[in-house]
Amino acid sequence: MSGAWSTHGVEIMADHVVKRFRSCTGGEHDREWRALMLLDRYAPDLAPAPLSADLAADPPMVMMSRLPGEPLRGGVVQPVQIDAMARTLARIFDAVPGPLASELPSRRHSRRQIESAARSWALELPADAPCAIRDAVTDGLRWLELTPFAAGCHPHVPPVFGQGDGNLANFLWDGNRVRLVDFEDSGRSDRACELADVTEHVATWVDTDFDAALFLDHFSLSTAEERRLSESRRLFALHWLLFLACEDPERPRNPPGTAIRQADRLQSLLGAYP
Questions:
Q1: C-alpha pair distances (Å), 236 with each of 8, 141, 163, 195, 256
Q2: Among 12, 1, 29, which residue's Cα sits nearest to residue 67?
Q3: How far apart are the first and last CA of the chain?
Q4: 62 shares a domain with 89
Q5: What is the rounded distance in angstroms from the CA atom of residue 54 to the CA atom of residue 24?
Q6: Number of folded domains in the chain?
Q7: Do both 109 and 227 map to the same domain?
């Protein structure tokens, strides 16, 4: 089974899952297998166990164990689920040794890549985009011009292994704990970037009631990480606004009015921090 927008196909069996990759331009198959092997060693039972892989096949294939649970996306994410979700992420952040995390390739959709994509997509903003969207994009780009983004990880923001996709559909709740799936975008990251990816992902609000503030309260961040979190949240919000505003109207992926709502979210974030 797979969605029309998916970068991979998934075959779900009784006790295992086979993932076949349609797109490998970013090394998605290698990233998935590397992540499963890493987490199996350093944080077992928080992700599918790696069973086998044929990374040279056409298309590449990864076989993994099947996890119990239902995706958190959709409906109301309860405080107990947010707590379990935060505990899982915190364990993953702490489990993979820092020196090893620092040697990983950067996660896909890194801060630098998102910044570059935002500037490119801004040039493609439809001429008939509503004023609220155009104003938010203008304000977001003005903020971006004034924000010095450091390449890679800042010395005061330690590297961690990052899953690289904050979609709540990747967090499986079994009634007691949360486990993670889908690591094709994974790589070197930092806690602030990963937390921003979750809180600003469109999946946390377009069809889901998710308390972002409660989620973030579970993490004790340094001053440098707090600053990086606020910058990353704005950057992800700008990314999502441009993505939604440039969406093909003939093939909508989100409900009508989502881009306008995202413009409001970005403006709120731009005004929330000094």
A1: 23, 12, 15, 11, 20
A2: 12
A3: 46
A4: no
A5: 13
A6: 2
A7: yes
